[in-house]
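During the reporting period, we have paired protein sequences with backbone structure tokens. One record among many follows, to show the layout:
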Amino acid sequence: MNRPVIDPTTIDAIDVHVHVEQDGHGCLSLDQELLDASAAYFRADQDRTPTVETIAAHYRERRMAAVVFTVDATTATGHPALSSEEIADAAAAHPDVLIPFGSVDPHGGAASVRRIRSLVDAHGVRGFKFHPSLQGFTPNDPAFYPLYEAITEAGVPALFHTGQTGIGAGLPGGRGIKLRLSDPMLLDDVAADFPELTVVLAHPSVPWQDAAISMATHKANVYIDLSGWSPKYFPPQLVRAANSMLRRKVLFGSDFPVLTADRWIADFATLEIKDEVRPLIMKDNAVRMLGLG
């Protein structure tokens, strides 16, 4: 499906990591215990469950675009996922500021592969989001390669949560969520085996930051998004890499709503980033990664 795409000249920045946490029917993306735990982890006191319409208004006021998505972890959590189809269709009403990504349950087999194709062809989805820890899957297991084959054929990127997560943080056993599944080095296999697939490693990948930097340096198809952490807490090696060999491989992302773009940008302003690198991170790299240029 050909839908209007954002004109990069009309915006000042692209936030590549924004969560839709509530649909138009009042259904939430996670159960209340997990929502509360992540809000406590991020010390977030703003609206924790924004809708597509709320997000569109928020980013339009700031002359920014936002990549929006949910995470389908139905099998792993037992909680019904929000509909990526509904999110994409709602985002289509705001083509000046919203870029919809889809999400499929990785345990869905052939049905998830078909859904990937349908989300792109019938609903205009421009990428896919995975959260290996929350979705309970090992991303380099060949059993999941048909998902990546379909995404590669569609010519859109795949964005993977990496590193620790605020979901389940502080709960007994972290609610069973296993951090090791989000070790970015598991995605090195995926990036190597699918060289035409753009892979985005979401977040500073603590405690595996060096692995993420190594991958993005080594593989042309790997990017890093800077969401989920205030820039004032970025590992120093990430700041050095962003200022030098990865200046064209790192992307502005907030992790809205738990971390707002306003807070992220305010803290980013105090970071020792070269003047010529800032526009690359804030917009230009995302324009290239998303194929908007």
Observations:
- The mean pLDDT is 93.
- The longest helix spans residues 110-123.
- Residues 113 and 147 are 5 Å apart (CA to CA).
- The chain has twelve helices and eight strands.
